[in-house]
Amino acid sequence: MKYSLRKASIEDKKCIYDLKKNSNYKYVDEIWGWDETYQINDFNDSFIIEELTVIENEGNVIGFYQLSVHPDKINLTEIHIKPEFRGRGIGSELINAFITGARNQRKRLTLGSFKSNTRATELYHRLGFTIFDETATHYMMEIK
Known about the structure:
InterPro entries: Acyl_CoA_acyltransferase (IPR016181), GNAT_dom (IPR000182), MshD_Acetyltransferase (IPR050276). Keywords: Transferase. By secondary structure, the protein is of the alpha+beta class. Helix content is 38%, strand content 33%. The protein contains four helices and seven strands. The chain has helices at residues 13-31, 36-46, 90-104, 118-126, and strands spanning 4-7, 52-57, 60-69, 73-81, 108-114, 130-134, 138-143. Strand 4, helix 3 (90-104) and strand 5 (108-114) form a beta-alpha-beta unit. The longest helix has 19 residues, at 13-31.
């Protein structure tokens, strides 16, 4: 599947929120109940434009990811792809590129995944991630 990447702009903010909401609503609602005001405030607090990249197909936004670079690790804070574009290898290809980049910098790549999102957790395991910690709701995973 062909796609392109570009740095996110402030004009992408609503689209990015909508993608994140679409991906996370089921899990958040099951665990805590969806509170739109809280979710918008939390999104605004974590919206770091410099860390965000938009994924496009034929000029249309189909996803985004957020990478946060730290001295000892790179954290994949978010990766969301529209449902109709999932299962086409986009996420795997991007994550493999992140793994290579982290290894080239001699850093580990970390991420968190809802425990109830078994599809994502299975993907991360297939790509070589292991669980290094967990909370009541999330697995914290890494690859070195």
